[in-house]
Amino acid sequence: MALCGGVGAMALPSELIVHIFSFLSDRDKLRASAVCSRWRECLFYPALWTELRLRIGGCNGSGSDETAKLEFLIRKFGSFVRELQLELAPAEGNLSPLSNDPSAARMEQPPGGQEGGPQPLSERWRDAMAAYLDQVLSVFAGIRNNRNLQKLSLFGDTFVLQQEGPLDTSNLHHVHQGDKKINEIQQLFMELLSNSRQLRWLSCSFMLGLLTPCSLACLSNPSAETLQHLSLLDHQLGPLVSPSELDRLSNLHSLALDFCDFTPELCGLLASPRRAPLHRLSLLLNGAALEFKPLEGTAMEDDWKALVRVSANLRVYLMALDVDSSELLRVLKPSLPLERLHLDSYSTLATDAALELVSQQYNKTLTHFLLLRDGPGFPDLSVNHNEDPLVLLAWRCTQLAVLVIHGYTVWSHNLVAISRLAASSLRVLTVSEESIDFDPDQSLYVEGDPVHNLVKEVSLGLGRVWRPCLDSGVVLSEPTQHFHRELRAFSTGV
User: Fold this and answer.
1) What is the pLDDT of residues 316-334, one digit of tens each?
2) What ranges in 312-467 are assigned the alpha helix state H?
3) Cα 96 to Cα 410: distance, rounded to the nearest angstrom
4) What are the backbone angles phi and psi of residue 123, rounded to the nearest 5°?
5) In angstroms, what CA-CA distances link 222 with 4, 8, 188, 214, 460?
6) What is the residue-wise DSSP string for 203-214?
């Protein structure tokens, strides 16, 4: 690269080089740093690394390499980065040799594993867990003293490690020095919260061995005043946010919790007029944990009414994971301002009664509805009904913008009806090809290929090109990962 008068690019002022490099992606910045020492010096200028987004994982023996890369990045930028978004995936794919059923990879069970006691971990499991602990340690060792951190988002995609259910913290104790590393991680995380001064976004989802019921108590008073979003999710049983800790966070605008931890006391605190109004509430209801965390202790109708009176713009995102419809009917309170509902199941079935309730109670607020099932067969919710419950939902919910269906039978003529009824608001209509069925008598009065005719009719109804989803894997994302990413989109910008 030559400039006028034969002056090389190396003669440019460092400030100008830094400005040029600011247009590069993080990956390209790291590649450019290998060109020469001058570029490396400019590329590690703090202004270029105010935001860091990483997804790392160790598989097939590469865990140590990934850990070394992470240590380098965090050592360089951890002390001044303002936004850190980190997704840790210790292994790609399932390491369990116990099952070949791909659908089992999405199954959740309560902590504690299967009956008969914990199963011994294989060598690959131990290697993946060791890499996970080392990576988490390197992250918090590098950011522990960062007082400028404003946004911290952590997601531990450890679910992919086990086909038989999520790994829990007890699995970490099988790793060499696992107990010691867990204690170090927890201490470093609490030290980070204590040293923070302007934290606005704190999200920690399914990070094994990181959170404890006492973690949030270490948050500094300045950060307690500035914090606007809080998301603490874990597979452990105990609540992670106590009323006294929530009371400190008076400027909270968005919150994400396990549904069973959303007690009347927490709801009452959020309804206090002394606080800033809450705008977004994301709740995860895991049916497998209801045996240990019953619904009796959750917010009641009067609690929701009090909260909505103070937070008039409150909207709720609820994911119900393998929840029986009888339990779901107890959860869906009339005053709950539900905007997004995700029903995901393996062994349970959504019922027409549940869909009827949703379409009637939330006809003015519901914008996103995901109905997913990863099990044998495709149940028909329209049996013994004059109208398909999904058609009624599309007709009644005038704000419906996203509708995703898999695992339940959707008749072609009902799909056409949905496209016509909700065309004005529906931005996304995703239905897996496996879920679509055709009336056997349709071929008698409609000429041509039924699939082609369906695509044509739905496209006309929506006013844009539409096609069924051919890959069910696109629809059936891992539930906890989907919840983490959806709540981030749901809460951002509030």
Assistant:
1) 999 999 999 999 999 999 9
2) 325-331, 352-361, 389-396, 412-421, 442-445, 450-462
3) 34
4) -65, -35
5) 52, 48, 19, 18, 55
6) EEES-TTT--TT
